[in-house]
Amino acid sequence: MEEYMSVARVSSGYPMLTTTSFIGMGKIVTKEAFDWVISDPKIVTASAVIARLMDDITSHKFEQKRGHVDSGVECYMKQYGASEEEAYDKFQKQIVDAWKDINEEFLRPTAVSMPLLMRVLNLSRVMDVIYTGEDGYTHVGKVMKNNVASLLIHPIA
C-alpha cells in the first residue's frame, strides 16, 4: 500500500496540476515559489492524497467491473486482509487527516504567499466536489453538469 501511494500520488497528476496552476499568476510566483512546490510540501502532498483516495473510493467498483488494474482499495484489502468497507473507512480517515494537514499549513508561516496556498486549497476543494458521492470525472453526471452550469451559465449576480 505504501508503494502504491508513493506512485499514485505522483501519477495522479495532482502535483503537476498544482505546479502548472501557478502559471499566469503574475509576479507573486517566483523561482522560490516553484522551488517550494516541487519540493513536495506537506500541503501539496495532502492535496494529492485527498484527490487520489477520493478517486479510488468512488471509482473502485466501476474500475473492477471493467477489469482495470488493482486500485488502492484492492492493494489495501490484499495487504491487510481487510474488507472493502474497512478499506473505504481507512481511506476516509486518511482523507480527513489530509484535510487537517492542509488546515495546519494555513496556520503557520510558509515559504510562499497566501494566494499560492489558496490555489492548492481550491484545487483540493475541486477534487472534493468532483468525487463526493460519485465519480464526477469519469461519469460526468447531472450533479457535475449542474455545478458547472451554476458557475459559468447561471452565476450569482
From TrEMBL:
<dbReference type="InterPro" id="IPR005630">
    <property type="entry name" value="Terpene_synthase_metal-bd"/>
</dbReference>
<dbReference type="GO" id="GO:0016114">
    <property type="term" value="P:terpenoid biosynthetic process"/>
</dbReference>
<dbReference type="InterPro" id="IPR050148">
    <property type="entry name" value="Terpene_synthase-like"/>
</dbReference>
<dbReference type="InterPro" id="IPR008949">
    <property type="entry name" value="Isoprenoid_synthase_dom_sf"/>
</dbReference>
<dbReference type="GO" id="GO:0010333">
    <property type="term" value="F:terpene synthase activity"/>
</dbReference>
<protein>
    <recommendedName>
        <fullName>Terpene synthase metal-binding domain-containing protein</fullName>
    </recommendedName>
</protein>
<dbReference type="Pfam" id="PF03936">
    <property type="entry name" value="Terpene_synth_C"/>
</dbReference>
<feature type="domain" description="Terpene synthase metal-binding">
    <location>
        <begin position="1"/>
        <end position="101"/>
    </location>
</feature>
<dbReference type="GO" id="GO:0000287">
    <property type="term" value="F:magnesium ion binding"/>
</dbReference>
<keyword id="KW-0479">Metal-binding</keyword>
